[in-house]
Design goal:
alpha/beta; 15-stranded mixed β-sheet; single chain; Endonuclease, Chain A; about 20% strand; 15 helices; 3 domains
């Protein structure tokens, strides 16, 4: 009982708590770690109540932004990129956040299903003649992963420079851990922040919790395959043991692929020399004469390598500027308070807000925590739809002026912690194609009917939401 505890224990506990808070305050200020209020409160509570546990956890997982992120140079402006190429407010906002400018693309293919996505992926791999870059969160330990590695080996043996970047945590979450055969054949392989390697170097930098969730394959800096799919069987055609998931991916050609290659270079450099905080900031581009013409798209990376929460900022601004519709598909729906408020206000002022999520996702905690924001959205007039399929797609359509597709989930981990990648499209015909893909998914879904929870359920949702940054 508390009265039986020696006074020395309280003195020791108080000293440890004070020192822990000092470490937290100095670390957050010195490294410019701006945090969401819920995350800040969570760290403070853990450090005060359990400093012996909280301080080591903070040192392991506390970094949210790299120190050099605030010193990233502004991205070079594309020449003669007028409002007809992309909305003027988008160009101003993204330039202020040092994002790559809008640029040209051609031959956009939005994959109808996993089979089409698989064939497109293998076609991009086979097209590489000089350089092939591949980044994924998970590379499956399955027949699909075997086939993909075999094709990478073929390109390496043909004299192509092949680089494969796999997230370190992803290798421990069902992904492939060993790449000996590929490396022996000439494929360069790197793990991004491996959690169990060099324990005396990585954890003290606070980056163990940062994951590279970007998905991209770039051939010769001219062809790009990207979207929400990890490179494993369930994200394509499934296997005998696992049904395929519904996901969204696309491929294209042009300057957007060159920007994706620059992002890969930055991530590859950091994976190779993380202790130097190298970010490989791209230099000025040599744009084609005559400037950027429609159709134009824009690479939208986000994560610890940018001072701003770029995709979150763009989503938030888009919701406030939307006039007609907001169409969203995401496997998880745990937005922070600011994005939730923006979506609710859009619905209240008459914008048609439709959000598609799976009836049951692959993350039970995400399914529990999503009900509170879903009830709030439904009360505001938004329409929520439950797909009978496991939907892993991530896309947003705002009015007729922008579609975004890529790797960002609508949860706090994806929006504030992970390295992520979206592509923004500004061509009305292509925006309509993304909207049609999402509308077909919505047509097979059933409407979400909110139900008021009991006390136990309400408290449980709140506790899980408190951990939302870790979902």
């Amino acid at each position: 009982m508390i009265s039986d505890l020696p006074s020395e224990w309280f003195s020791w506990h108080g000293l440890m708590s004070a020192l822990g808070l000092l470490v937290y305050a100095l670390g957050s200020h010195a490294l410019n770690q701006r945090r969401h209020p819920a995350a800040a409160i969570g760290w403070v509570m853990v450090i005060v109540l359990l400093p012996e546990v909280g301080v080591p956890l903070y040192l392991l997982f506390g970094t949210r932004k790299l120190p050099k992120a605030g010193r990233r140079l502004p991205a070079p402006a594309s020449p003669e990129a007028g409002p007809e190429v992309a909305p003027a407010w988008v160009q101003r906002l993204t330039a202020a956040m040092s994002l790559p400018p809008p640029c040209n693309y051609r031959h956009l293919a939005i994959h109808a299903d996993g089979h089409e996505a698989r064939e497109a992926l293998f076609a991009v791999v086979a097209s590489a003649r000089r350089r092939l870059d591949m980044c994924t969160f998970i590379l499956g330990r399955d027949a699909f992963g075997d086939e993909l590695l075999r094709r990478l080996i073929e390109r390496a043996q043909a004299g192509v420079t092949v680089r494969l970047l796999v997230d370190g945590m992803g290798t421990w979450m069902g992904g492939r851990k060993h790449f000996g055969e590929a490396i022996a054949a000439g494929v360069q392989v790197a793990q991004f922040v491996p959690p169990l390697r060099s324990p005396f170097r990585w954890p003290l930098r606070g980056r163990t919790n940062l994951r590279n969730h970007r998905k991209l394959v770039v051939a010769d800096a001219d062809r790009l395959w990207s979207g929400g799919r990890n490179l494993a069987a369930e994200y394509f055609e499934g296997s005998a043991a696992r049904a395929p998931w519904t996901d969204l991916s696309f491929d294209l050609q042009g300057d957007v692929a060159a920007e994706a290659a620059a992002v890969f270079d930055s991530d590859w450099g950091f994976a190779q020399s993380p202790l130097r905080d190298e970010m490989g900031i791209p230099g000025p581009r040599q744009w084609p004469p005559g400037g950027v013409r429609a159709p134009a798209a824009q690479l939208l990376p986000s994560g610890p390598d940018y001072a701003d929460d770029t995709v979150h900022t763009l989503l938030l601004t888009s919701c406030y500027r939307a006039r007609n519709r907001i169409l969203i598909v995401s496997p998880y729906l745990v937005p922070d308070e600011s994005l939730l408020s923006a979506l609710c206000l859009a619905a209240r002022r008459g914008v048609a807000v439709d959000i598609i999520v799976p009836a049951r996702s692959n993350h039970r905690l995400a399914d529990i925590s999503r009900h509170r924001p879903m009830r709030e959205l439904a009360r505001a007039g938004a329409r929520l739809w439950l797909s009978p399929l496991m939907v892993h797609a991530k896309a947003v359509v705002i009015d007729e002026h922008m579609a975004m597709a890529g790797s960002v989930n609508l949860d706090s981990r994806s929006l504030f912690l992970n390295y992520e990648l979206m592509v923004g499209f500004y061509s009305e015909p292509d925006i309509a194609r993304f909207a049609a893909w999402m509308a077909a998914l919505l047509a097979a879904a059933r409407p979400y009917v909110p139900r008021e929870p009991g006390l136990a359920r309400y408290v449980g949702e709140g506790l899980v939401l408190w951990l939302a940054f870790q979902i």
